[in-house]
Design goal:
Elements lengths: L2 H20 L8 E6 L2 E6 L7 E3 L42 E16 L4 E7 L5 E9 L4 E8 L5 E8 L5 E14 L1
Length: about 180
Protein backbone atom coordinates (compact mmCIF):
# COMPACT_ATOMS: atom_id res chain seq x y z
CA UNK A 1 0.00 0.00 0.00
CA UNK A 2 1.45 3.35 -0.90
CA UNK A 3 1.75 6.13 1.65
CA UNK A 4 -1.16 8.17 0.28
CA UNK A 5 -3.66 5.33 0.57
CA UNK A 6 -2.59 4.55 4.10
CA UNK A 7 -2.80 8.19 5.00
CA UNK A 8 -6.30 8.50 3.50
CA UNK A 9 -7.39 5.42 5.41
CA UNK A 10 -5.91 6.88 8.57
CA UNK A 11 -7.67 10.19 7.92
CA UNK A 12 -11.01 8.47 7.39
CA UNK A 13 -10.58 6.50 10.58
CA UNK A 14 -9.60 9.61 12.51
CA UNK A 15 -12.64 11.51 11.21
CA UNK A 16 -14.87 8.60 12.09
CA UNK A 17 -13.61 8.97 15.65
CA UNK A 18 -13.71 12.76 15.51
CA UNK A 19 -17.46 12.99 14.91
CA UNK A 20 -18.66 11.37 18.17
CA UNK A 21 -15.93 12.97 20.28
CA UNK A 22 -16.43 16.43 18.84
CA UNK A 23 -20.15 16.08 19.43
CA UNK A 24 -19.46 16.29 23.17
CA UNK A 25 -19.03 20.03 22.57
CA UNK A 26 -17.56 21.01 25.91
CA UNK A 27 -14.84 23.63 25.79
CA UNK A 28 -12.30 21.47 27.64
CA UNK A 29 -12.37 18.67 25.06
CA UNK A 30 -11.15 20.74 22.07
CA UNK A 31 -9.88 18.08 19.66
CA UNK A 32 -7.11 18.53 17.11
CA UNK A 33 -5.80 16.27 14.36
CA UNK A 34 -2.05 15.70 14.56
CA UNK A 35 0.24 14.08 11.95
CA UNK A 36 3.73 12.63 12.26
CA UNK A 37 4.95 11.07 9.04
CA UNK A 38 2.16 8.85 7.75
CA UNK A 39 0.46 8.53 11.12
CA UNK A 40 -2.50 10.66 12.11
CA UNK A 41 -3.72 10.94 15.68
CA UNK A 42 -6.60 12.67 17.37
CA UNK A 43 -5.56 14.60 20.46
CA UNK A 44 -7.16 16.92 22.97
CA UNK A 45 -6.12 20.58 22.74
CA UNK A 46 -2.63 20.35 21.09
CA UNK A 47 -0.19 18.14 19.20
CA UNK A 48 2.95 16.71 20.84
CA UNK A 49 6.53 17.56 19.85
CA UNK A 50 7.32 16.43 16.32
CA UNK A 51 3.65 16.33 15.27
CA UNK A 52 2.00 18.86 12.97
CA UNK A 53 -1.50 20.06 13.43
CA UNK A 54 -3.65 19.24 10.37
CA UNK A 55 -6.80 21.04 9.33
CA UNK A 56 -9.57 18.44 8.94
CA UNK A 57 -10.61 19.93 5.60
CA UNK A 58 -7.10 19.21 4.23
CA UNK A 59 -7.73 15.48 4.69
CA UNK A 60 -10.32 15.54 1.90
CA UNK A 61 -13.09 13.93 3.94
CA UNK A 62 -16.08 15.87 5.18
CA UNK A 63 -17.51 14.96 8.53
CA UNK A 64 -21.18 15.10 9.55
CA UNK A 65 -22.91 18.47 9.75
CA UNK A 66 -23.02 20.08 13.13
CA UNK A 67 -26.17 21.37 14.77
CA UNK A 68 -27.21 24.93 13.83
CA UNK A 69 -25.78 27.73 15.91
CA UNK A 70 -27.81 30.36 17.71
CA UNK A 71 -29.12 33.36 15.79
CA UNK A 72 -26.84 36.35 15.88
CA UNK A 73 -27.91 39.78 17.09
CA UNK A 74 -29.68 42.15 14.72
CA UNK A 75 -27.52 44.33 12.56
CA UNK A 76 -27.84 48.11 12.31
CA UNK A 77 -30.76 49.63 10.43
CA UNK A 78 -30.25 50.09 6.72
CA UNK A 79 -30.22 53.40 4.90
CA UNK A 80 -33.47 54.98 3.77
CA UNK A 81 -34.48 53.98 0.28
CA UNK A 82 -34.92 56.45 -2.53
CA UNK A 83 -38.25 58.19 -3.11
CA UNK A 84 -40.70 56.43 -5.37
CA UNK A 85 -42.12 57.85 -8.58
CA UNK A 86 -44.85 60.46 -8.45
CA UNK A 87 -48.33 59.05 -8.79
CA UNK A 88 -50.78 60.12 -11.48
CA UNK A 89 -52.58 63.44 -11.15
CA UNK A 90 -55.84 63.30 -9.21
CA UNK A 91 -59.22 64.22 -10.56
CA UNK A 92 -60.19 67.89 -10.41
CA UNK A 93 -62.08 68.87 -7.28
CA UNK A 94 -65.53 70.41 -7.23
CA UNK A 95 -66.04 74.15 -7.05
CA UNK A 96 -66.24 74.14 -3.22
CA UNK A 97 -67.09 77.23 -1.19
CA UNK A 98 -66.36 80.83 -1.96
CA UNK A 99 -67.57 84.28 -0.94
CA UNK A 100 -67.77 83.51 2.79
CA UNK A 101 -69.71 86.09 4.84
CA UNK A 102 -71.19 86.56 8.30
CA UNK A 103 -74.50 88.41 8.45
CA UNK A 104 -75.79 89.81 11.77
CA UNK A 105 -79.17 91.13 12.90
CA UNK A 106 -79.71 92.64 16.34
CA UNK A 107 -82.54 94.43 18.07
CA UNK A 108 -85.00 94.30 20.94
CA UNK A 109 -88.13 92.31 21.67
CA UNK A 110 -90.55 94.28 23.88
CA UNK A 111 -93.33 93.09 26.17
CA UNK A 112 -93.17 89.34 25.36
CA UNK A 113 -95.77 87.63 27.61
CA UNK A 114 -94.64 84.75 29.83
CA UNK A 115 -94.74 81.40 27.93
CA UNK A 116 -94.86 83.10 24.52
CA UNK A 117 -92.44 82.82 21.56
CA UNK A 118 -90.71 85.59 19.62
CA UNK A 119 -88.81 84.82 16.41
CA UNK A 120 -86.31 86.75 14.35
CA UNK A 121 -84.07 85.88 11.44
CA UNK A 122 -81.22 87.07 9.30
CA UNK A 123 -80.79 86.45 5.56
CA UNK A 124 -77.77 85.60 3.45
CA UNK A 125 -76.84 87.81 0.49
CA UNK A 126 -78.64 86.83 -2.72
CA UNK A 127 -77.63 83.37 -4.03
CA UNK A 128 -75.63 82.34 -0.95
CA UNK A 129 -76.49 79.41 1.32
CA UNK A 130 -76.30 79.24 5.14
CA UNK A 131 -73.49 77.14 6.57
CA UNK A 132 -74.35 77.74 10.24
CA UNK A 133 -75.72 80.32 12.61
CA UNK A 134 -76.82 81.09 16.13
CA UNK A 135 -78.30 83.64 18.51
CA UNK A 136 -78.16 85.17 21.96
CA UNK A 137 -80.61 86.97 24.24
CA UNK A 138 -79.64 89.13 27.20
CA UNK A 139 -82.37 88.46 29.79
CA UNK A 140 -83.04 85.99 32.59
CA UNK A 141 -85.63 83.34 31.72
CA UNK A 142 -85.40 83.85 27.94
CA UNK A 143 -84.44 80.54 26.30
CA UNK A 144 -83.67 79.68 22.70
CA UNK A 145 -86.37 77.28 21.50
CA UNK A 146 -85.33 77.03 17.81
CA UNK A 147 -82.04 77.85 16.06
CA UNK A 148 -81.92 76.47 12.52
CA UNK A 149 -81.54 77.31 8.82
CA UNK A 150 -84.48 79.28 7.46
CA UNK A 151 -87.11 77.21 5.65
CA UNK A 152 -86.15 78.76 2.29
CA UNK A 153 -82.48 77.81 2.97
CA UNK A 154 -81.42 81.46 2.54
CA UNK A 155 -80.59 82.50 6.13
CA UNK A 156 -81.00 81.61 9.83
CA UNK A 157 -84.14 81.61 12.00
CA UNK A 158 -84.31 81.79 15.82
CA UNK A 159 -87.23 81.57 18.25
CA UNK A 160 -87.03 82.49 21.96
CA UNK A 161 -89.48 81.43 24.68
CA UNK A 162 -90.15 83.66 27.66
CA UNK A 163 -89.93 81.42 30.75
CA UNK A 164 -89.24 84.31 33.14
CA UNK A 165 -92.63 84.18 34.91
CA UNK A 166 -93.60 87.67 33.71
CA UNK A 167 -93.67 89.85 30.61
CA UNK A 168 -90.12 90.41 29.31
CA UNK A 169 -88.24 92.85 27.16
CA UNK A 170 -84.80 91.79 25.94
CA UNK A 171 -82.05 92.52 23.43
CA UNK A 172 -81.07 89.86 20.92
CA UNK A 173 -78.53 89.07 18.25
CA UNK A 174 -78.94 86.58 15.38
CA UNK A 175 -76.13 85.67 13.00
CA UNK A 176 -75.60 83.43 10.00
CA UNK A 177 -72.45 82.33 8.15
CA UNK A 178 -73.10 82.08 4.40
CA UNK A 179 -71.15 81.24 1.23
CA UNK A 180 -71.51 80.53 -2.46
CA UNK A 181 -71.79 76.75 -2.64
CA UNK A 182 -70.58 75.32 -5.93
Amino acid sequence: MDARKGWALGAGLSLALLGPLAARGDAQSALVICKRGRHIKLRERCCTRGEKRVDASALGVTGPSGSPGRDGSSGPAGRDGSNGQDGPAGLPGGPGLSGWEKMVSSGQVSNLPNGSLASRGVSCSAGKKPLGGGADAQAAGIEIEISAPAVADDGWQVAWRNNSGSTATFSYIVYVVCADVG
